[in-house]
Amino acid sequence: MAPRKSTNSYNFPAPIDNDFLVGHTDVLNDFINAWNGRDTHPVHPVWMLAGPRGIGKATLAYKIAKMVYGNVGDFFIVDMAHNIDKNGNPKTDGKSISIYTVRAMIERMQMSSMSGGWRVIIIDSVDELNSSASNALLKLLEEPPAQTLFLLIVHQLANVLPTVRSRARVEKMRPLTRGQLCELCAKFMPDTDISDEMLRLSNGSFGRIAGLKKSGGDVIYNELMECLNNPHCTSADMLAVAKKIAVSPELHGILLDAIAAFGLADLYPSATHAIADITRINLEPETALFKIITQIKQCL
User: Fold this and answer.
1) Using 50, 70 and 90 to split pLDDT, how confident is the model at 4?
2) For the chain, what is the radius of gyration of the CA atoms?
3) Which residues pair with 124 in a beta bridge?
4) Per-residue pLDDT reduced to its tens digit, 158-176
5) Per-residue pLDDT averaged across 63-81, rounded?
6) Which among 44, 90, 95, 287 is least buried, having the fewest CB atoms inside 10 angstroms?
7) CATH architecture of the region 23-172
8) For residue 202, is the peptide bond before it cis, meaning its omega torsion is within 30 degrees of 0?
């Protein structure tokens, strides 16, 4: 078995810096064909890249953007990293993208293009726009500016206003195959052993693998399963695992993975709701997660 890396040693490039796209050649080719034929048939100005998190939607968006413009000089990026409040200061609560961020993008668009050619607007993601920001985007899409390409990243189509969706060309992107996941793991984690269980847990998302590896979630998941499978597991043991999971919201989902592994479908809706409530109503993570672990244990 290959030596295990420290969880702090992984260096996964941001999508804007990553030119290594695996999969989604159908969507990429659709865009290339549309772009190359734009003199005959105008290219649709709004492309919605929809699919599960971590499958490469943002990587594809930046690849398309660079193809259109050639560099990042005229990219307009709306995402959590560029989120601002009403005073123009960074907004770091991580809950939603504000209308002020969208308005700032629109104000920049009103300036003349640096290249004199096409502009690219990347929104990552539409799911994270608050209601006011979504409405501001809708107004912009009703009459898209000339020579402007919108690349809208969407994790859940159900979270998108139907009026926004109706103005876009929707490209549904599929989860990555096992072979594609292995290819990405070999590229970005060449010295790391990726188990069959990790590939199963990923649900076709390399981002999920990367997140679990960086956070040590794969190790914590194994501890959780050992605890649940141990007939002598105590409340203290379960609380200790809950404390480890509570460290990062990215880890909370491993409880749902455990529920799926045990085939406890009836428990899934309530556990999903309870995990969402941790952020939504600021529950104490350790207590909420401990309750879910206890419920799983009682069902076994």
Assistant:
1) very low
2) 21
3) 79, 153
4) 989 999 999 999 999 999 9
5) 81
6) 90
7) 3-Layer(aba) Sandwich (3.40)
8) no
